[in-house]
Recover the amino acids of this structure.
């Protein structure tokens, strides 16, 4: 009998779809990268998903974040995502956490319940905390590197962190992972040289008093668009789906 996942089942088969249905995946960061990744997981038949993000939807999110519309401005991103994802698959079990991963919040999570973890946050401290927690629990993780100030969606690659180049965030992560004895880490990164944002000072002056600035505490915000972070997120989701559907 046909169902909403029938076209996916043609690729992964009945057993593969059962594995996806019985899998629980955590997505940390429901922004431009994480939002697209999370939706792709839901559309692929993942049965249970955890959404972790403490931020709310802002006007300047609309250009790239799949959950951001004029109707969702001011909503917590995890609430907007839950509403959208249940419209896609009402049977998907969604766990929401309105928090941010840090050394002081990591104990809020039981990482052993996850079959896979997606890191779509943009702070080094948070990423390292998440990576160490995932590895301690023996759970596979994939991390996004820098997607800001990029215009070429074809420049993304999947690689081990120690085989990355060009990306400034990946360079910092290589150094920090080596210091912490992290031997392997799957990442999605871009070899594209970042562009220099135009009218940056004007934007930052206006942004300083915006809700996004107050929520994130960040003043130095990179430029972004609809077609680069979305591709990074879809690549991450694809890696997760292929891994989980093929497990014996």
């Amino acid at each position: 009998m046909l169902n909403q996942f029938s076209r996916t089942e043609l690729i992964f088969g009945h057993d593969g779809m059962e594995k996806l249905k019985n899998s629980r995946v955590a997505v940390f960061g429901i922004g431009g990268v994480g939002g697209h990744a999370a939706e792709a997981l839901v559309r692929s038949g993942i049965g249970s998903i955890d959404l972790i993000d403490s931020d709310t939807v802002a006007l300047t999110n609309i250009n790239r974040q799949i959950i951001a519309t004029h109707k969702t401005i001011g909503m917590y991103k995890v609430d907007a995502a839950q509403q959208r994802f249940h419209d896609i698959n009402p049977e998907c079990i969604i766990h929401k956490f309105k928090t941010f991963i840090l050394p002081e919040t990591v104990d809020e999570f039981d990482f052993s319940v996850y079959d896979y973890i997606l890191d779509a946050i943009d702070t080094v401290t948070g990423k390292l905390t998440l990576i160490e927690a995932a590895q301690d629990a023996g759970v596979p993780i994939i991390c996004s590197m820098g997607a800001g100030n990029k215009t070429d969606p074809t420049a993304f690659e999947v690689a081990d962190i120690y085989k990355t180049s060009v990306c400034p965030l990946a360079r910092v992560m290589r150094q920090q992972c080596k210091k912490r004895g992290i031997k392997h880490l799957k990442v999605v990164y871009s070899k594209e040289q970042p562009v220099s944002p135009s009218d940056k000072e004007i934007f930052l002056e206006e942004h300083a008093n915006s809700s996004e600035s107050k929520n994130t505490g960040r003043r130095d915000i990179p430029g972004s668009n609809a077609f680069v972070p979305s591709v990074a997120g879809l690549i991450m989701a694809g890696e997760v789906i292929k891994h989980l559907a093929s497990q014996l």
